[in-house]
Amino acid sequence: GVFLYNHLQQKVRNAEALAQKYKQQQEALSAQLQVVYEHRSRLERSLQKERGEHKKTKEDFLVYKLEAQEALNKEKQDSMNRYGALSSQHKILKNQHDDVKKQLLDLQLQHNSLKLEHRKALESHSQKYTQLQQEKDSEVTNLQDTVFKLREESKLLRKAHQEVHSQLLNAQAQMEEFRQLKEALQKMPGLR
């Protein structure tokens, strides 16, 4: 009976020790569970806060996206307007360029025509000048011949009668007129 009592008492002590161990484990688990609950609570609050911030960020992003879209549409419209204005200005400048090009072509044709006319006039003037030069040379030669003949006649008339001497004076006066005519011809710019 003692042995049985001791044996039972030993079992009771073992059971109490095991119960104490389980109780300590339960308390440790309770403490860990409490920490886990608190951590979970903090995580839920943090998650809630993150969700709120995410919602606000999403709303801000939507507002920003809307404003950016409106700004982009406005910029696109402004660009289209500027493109239209530049396109119109380009057409005007192109038309002006074509007009100036046509005027330049007309002026070049006119210049070529005037150049041809100038060349023809120059050739005509050159021919006329050559002709007048030849006529002048011919007249000078004729006048020289006339002067020579008059000098010969003057030599003969000096030996003649007073009446012939009078004719000689007239011939000399005529010779003087021919000399003045020669000088006048030489001074003419068209015959120089």
TrEMBL record:
Keywords: Coiled coil. The keyword ATP-binding does not apply. One of its GO terms (cellular component) is Golgi membrane. The keyword Cytoplasm does not apply. Residues 5-60, 90-135 form a coiled coil. Transmembrane segments: none annotated. Signal peptide: none annotated. This is GOLI4 protein. It comes from Mionectes macconnelli (McConnell's flycatcher). The lineage of its organism: Eukaryota, Metazoa, Chordata, Craniata, Vertebrata.
